[in-house]
Amino acid sequence: MSIIFEPNNKIFTMQTKHTTWQAKVSKYGHLLHVYYGSKVEDADLSYLIRGINRGFSGTPYIACDDRGYSLDTYPQEYSSWGSGDYRSSCLEIEHEDGSRAAELLYVSHKIYDGKYILPGLPAIWGKPSEIETLEVLMKDRSTEIEVILYYSVLEEYDVITRACKICNAGNKPVFLHKALSACLDLQRDDLDMVSFHGRHAMERILQRNHAQHGKMSVGSVRGTSSHQANPFVILCDQTAGEEHGECYGMSFVYSGNFIAETEVDQINQTRFTMGIHPDGFRYLLEAKEAFVAPEVIFSYSSKGFGTLSQNFHDLYRNHLIRSTFKNKRRPVLINNWEATEFDFTEKELVSLAVSAKELGIELFVMDDGWFGSRNHDKSGLGDWFANREKLPSGVKGFAEKIHKLGMMFGIWIEPEMVNEDSELYRKHPQWCLKIPGRLPNLERCQMVLDMTRKDVRDYLFEAVSKVLDESHAEYVKWDMNRNLSDVWSADLPGERQGEVYHRYVLGVYELIERFTSKYPDILWEGCSGGGGRFDAGILYYMPQSWCSDNTDAIERITIQYGTSFGYPISCVGAHVSVSPNQQTGRETSIETRAAVAMAGTFGYELDVRKLNEEEREKVKEQIVFFKKYYDLIHEGDYYRLTEVGKRTDLAAWQFVSKDKSESLICTVMLQAKANPPFLRLRVRGLKEESLYHMEGTETFYKGSALMHAGINLPVVYGDYQNVNFVFQEVLS
Ligand code: GLA
What we know:
Blueprint lengths: L2 E4 L4 E5 L3 E7 L5 E8 L52 E4 L9 E10 L18 E9 L4 E10 L4 E10 L5 E13 L4 E9 L2 E9 L3 E7 L11 E6 L9 E6 L5 E7 L5 E6 L7 E3 L4 E12 L2 H16 L13 E3 L1 H4 L5 H14 L3 E4 L27 H11 L3 E6 L3 E3 L3 H5 L18 E3 L5 H18 L3 E4 L21 H19 L4 E4 L9 H6 L2 E3 L6 H12 L7 E2 L2 E2 L12 H8 L5 E3 L7 H16 L1 H6 L1 E4 L9 E7 L5 E8 L9 E3 L9 E4 L5 E3 H7 L1 E3 L7 E10 L2
Parallel strand pairs: 20-21, 20-30, 21-22, 22-25, 25-26, 26-27, 27-28, 29-30
Antiparallel strand pairs: 1-2, 2-3, 3-4, 5-10, 6-7, 7-8, 8-9, 9-19, 10-17, 10-18, 11-12, 11-14, 13-16, 14-15, 15-19, 16-17, 23-24, 31-32, 32-33, 33-38, 34-37, 35-36, 35-38
The site of alpha-D-galactopyranose (GLA) has 11 residues, from loops.
């Protein structure tokens, strides 16, 4: 039993392997947050909640004689606007009379085996034997608004997920102005917020700020989770690092607008809230309608970021990703984008594929430019049929040629978009998001299709299915190359326009669900101009996402470092590209580029025909190496050995098999130095007492020596040099 209800004191205790979450129904019926942190067994921790009479922090009417009891200072499980809690709210409702308030009181609860279901939304899943759920029904004191708070406990993973449903059980319509998914009230003010900001071609750069009085938030109002902010954040104590310290990780399982906010209040408590961003959000709930707020995943570690990340990695690999490629090896691919961009012929692509096949590459991916009038980014999006000038025998004929080579065939699509210069737009100008009477904002000369519309989704499903059927594609890259603006749907009445952002995401999910159920054996890769929609929501449907349009190995170290805090290596789309790099002009060796791409899905994205013989031999070896250590890399524990940003001389990361018998350590020595100091590296996660053999040498090391004393790194010549180490446990 991981969820226990103690009826006398009305306490809910949720236990995972190393953590405890406790909540309590107060004597006045509010659901208070008691504790979340390291495991405490058999204890009522509600003594932690205290109240004293504080000026300007009021008291609920029914508690008027109890002036220490204030919703403004007491920790809440789900906060609401308008009834005396002046801190960040989760719920803001406008009732029919124009009033905006809610005071949620406990009504009843259910505890059951298995996971709660969020229809139409991605979420963590699992067997009833692996997950236990608590549902708490709350009701507004004065209206028929009900809120069901969901909690699911994955004991083994140190994970608790949350979501909620807001139901209008009354007879009159209401508007939701804010419907966040979760709140965490911690009675402490010593927390930093770690978030991941970025931009196109430079995503998920770690930023750490102390949460101070007032609000601090990150989020997106771009219609997607965005390059600029990621819906994964950490709250940690100010001393926390990779191997020590308390940290709380929160991941929003959603691919649209979001907010993650901390607020330190007047008495030095920190409130964290997460959910759909309230900007641009206004949701009409007619009588008897309900709104489901997407899932937030919580995990806590008292052992620093390393363990926290591993919790998320294990969880996603086993209980988020559903693809058949969860348990199947993914092929090493070549993508033609950086080699040709839009400028290719079938003949050229076949010759690229032939050359790639010789190297051991298994999958050929035809990127943008194969359809309609798509010879540049100004036209063609929406017309999902072959450009016969480039592909005289159609996608079918081209795919046959690839298959004949003994390679798998993959294809790029960008279903959510349309160019004005396209047959689709000319036929259905109402199918895109734009506001009547306004000239829409353009990005990359394209507009966003109205994914809230079923007719739009049906068209896309049919047109793209045709291509997949005739080509027998084994891989699809689903791109999305702009943000939403001018958000207005011709299909919805005025009073529902505030729902379009959310309905857009639901529409995208519905369409992807249709595709992935019809084509379960296809390997689906998400993409949004690189990593502009890199989130747990997308990963539920597609097991990997292109991490960044920046393929420079050195910049990728920073991008992939940030990404690794919340997401497993097996999700990180990463390719070896040309040197000098197309985005930065930086030169790096093929070894360094491969080492970085191997901390991901691994593939190539360059004209391999132009590699010299020595490089081609190296590529062959890299593919053999990657396949040899595939399980270790994709299934093992991942360790960040250096802190990007702090160290300018070295970047290092490590994979350790779950049984600790094998480990791969990758290093990139960033800056060459004359008369250099010696570099040494301590590794992690091995067995202290075991003996390990360093592959390719006659040297043996004790696990404790490797972890506490470290290994010597060689003195290298030239910037950005890569050195890898493999250790195998010697069984006595
Ligand atoms: C986006 C993707 C790239 C490539 C181009 C094609 O930018 O991230 O990998 O597919 O689109 O237009």
